[in-house]
Every structure is written in structure tokens, then in C-alpha cells.
């Protein structure tokens, strides 16, 4: 299933457990990379994450919001960084949609997504649980993910497999490293 997701473009949309809630939209184009747009339900602001070839580009404002929500820091992002992306290395792009190897069949949760019969697999650890609905006919691919994180829930639905999208990484002059981000935010 993960292989089918990696080799063909798709779109996904739904709610998110990140930043205390909101909506998310994702586009994957294997040759171009990944683009995730999150809209906060508290502020209405949109933030973006991009990923290509193991490099993740996170909007400086999104990174600051994530640090704030986790309680690890409360950084103030200067206006000059409001349209800048912080780069990080090492996490493959499929992390954003990959079904973990530890996921186990969960027939009680089998369902139907957009008229397609699915079988469920669940991955759980501590207060986190993810239920993946996988197409049970044709090409086995992820059609829906329901997540629970510390009492928050989200549902993301995957569609538009094989359709044409354009994903462009942020330009070099709009990126900084994590150490530059740390030195420039208060």
C-alpha cells in the first residue's frame, strides 16, 4: 500500500490534530515533492510544509506555532521571517502519509469511503491512535485516515490518484536552517 502511494500523485484533505485543530490539504507528486497546507481554526491563518528528497521546508510561523502548542518554547517570529521556510533533513516525505509497519488489521473498523469498500488497519501508541482505511478492491491504497492525539481527533480523505498537480519547493532565498531560525526568533 505504501508503494502505491509513493509512485502516484494524489490529493488529500480534512481536519488536523495539529495546532489545536483546523483543516489540512495535501498534494503529492512523486517527481516534485509534497505540499501540505494547514489552516488554523483559531486564527484562520494558513501555513505550509513542503518536502522533497528528505528535506522538509516548514513555514517559520507554523514551526513557531507547533513549538508553542507543545509547550517547548514560545518564539516570536519577526516580520522578516513571516514568508520564510525552515529546512530540516532526514525525514522521508512519505512520513506524512505512510502507514506504519506496526499497523495491525482491525476488521471491526472496516468501512466504506466514497463508495469504495475498505479494510482497516490500526496503529496505536499511548494516547495516539491512527485508523487507516485501505481500498479493498482494485489498487490497494490509502483512502482515509482517522487520528486521535491527546483527545483531539481528525479525519483526512485521500483522492485524485494519478491526477496532475504542481508542487514547487520554496526558493532558496526564502529558506533558512533550523540553527538560523533559533538565532533569529525570540
User: Helical percent range?
Assistant: 10-25%
Largest sheet: 13 strands, mixed
Order of helices and strands: HEEEEEHEEEEEEEEH
How many beta-strand runs? 13
Roughly how many Å is the radius of gyration?
A: 17 Å
Q: Approximately what portion of the residues adopt beta-strand conformation?
A: 35-45%
Report how far the terminal alpha carbons are from each other. 43 Å
Instruction: Tell me, briefly, the overall form.
Output: globular
Mean pLDDT: 90
Task: Describe the model.
The protein has helices spanning 2-7, 60-70, 178-184, and strands spanning 10-15, 22-29, 33-40, 46-52, 55-59, 85-89, 104-105, 111-113, 116-125, 128-135, 142-149, 152-159, 175-177. Strands 1, 2, 3, 4, 5, 6, 7, 8, 9, 10, 11, 12 and 13 form a 13-stranded mixed beta sheet that branches. The termini are far apart. The protein has 186 residues and is mainly β. It is globular and about 50 Å long. It has three helices and 13 strands; from the N terminus they run H-E-E-E-E-E-H-E-E-E-E-E-E-E-E-H.
Features:
globular; 13-stranded mixed beta sheet
What's the gist of this structure?
With 186 residues, the chain is mainly beta.
